[in-house]
Amino acid sequence: MLIVKPLACTIVAEQRCRLPILVAPLLLLGVTWGYGLPSLHRVRADIDRLSVMTPDVLATGCTHIAGNYWTVWPAIFHANLALYERGESRTVWGVTFGGQPTSTLWRTMRQEDRVVCIRLNDPYGDNWLISFGFSRFRDVQRRATVRVLRRQAGASGGQAGFLKTGLFMVAKERASLNLCRSDQHRRRGLMRKILKVGHARSCKRRRNRQVILERLTGRFLRPFPKPGITAPQRTSDSSG
Is residue 129 one of the residues assigned to a domain? Predict the structure, then answer.
């Protein structure tokens, strides 16, 4: 904390204006007593506290560090600082939350050339590798602070097995899709039959209703005579 006050206030100002000027030196003395004088060596010592993984990262030629956010980025900062001080042009990249913007700078790197370091007992490193598209990376070395991972040896047998597995999965998906389609066709045919039967039954019911209405109309509903015309009287035939 630093309090700035014009010196002229000590001459003409009131007593309440002199208090900040008297307190400021005391604050500076207290900070100096508690933390010592400002020093670049102390700043460097604070930065070097982040160098837990740096020796192993540089010794293994690591290109990526994966894992927990609060573990990866401090290690990335100190490792790149050490590389800069050595005069090396290579960069160590972070594979974790917030690493997507910089991933466009190393996407073109061949996976066989990537060397990944994950801090020991970090449960998130392998999941981050999968989410960033690192395929078939296995542990090849274990050091004091990190696990070193490289892509599985690119032998033809392994690649062929991978291709066979992929083709098998594709064939399986196609078979399941065909089964789904046949099941859909069967269901649609069944629905058509049900609708056809229902339509026939509804038509039959409609015809039955019409017949019944026609019979009822002819039996119970008689036309009314016109005005001025008497309805014909039925005469009985006595001779009959």
Answer: yes
CA atoms of 103 and 68, how far apart (whole Å)? 17
**By residue range, what is the domain housing residue 186?**
156-210
Whole-prediction pTM: 0.53
pLDDT in tens, 133-158: 998 899 999 999 999 999 987 544 44
Q: What is the structure's pLDDT at 174?
A: 60
What does the CA dihedral 69, 72, 76, 79 come to, rounded to 10 degrees?
160
Residue 53 belongs to a domain: yes
173-217 pLDDT, tens digit per residue, is 565 666 566 667 777 777 777 777 777 777 777 777 777 766 666
Q: Is 64 helix (H, G, I), strand (E, B) or coil?
A: strand
Rounded distance, CA 72 to CA 62, Å? 13
Strands 64-66 and 116-119: parallel
| Contact between 22 and 10 (Cβ < 8 Å) | no
Element (H, E) at 59: helix 54-59
Q: What is the DSSP letter of 224?
A: P
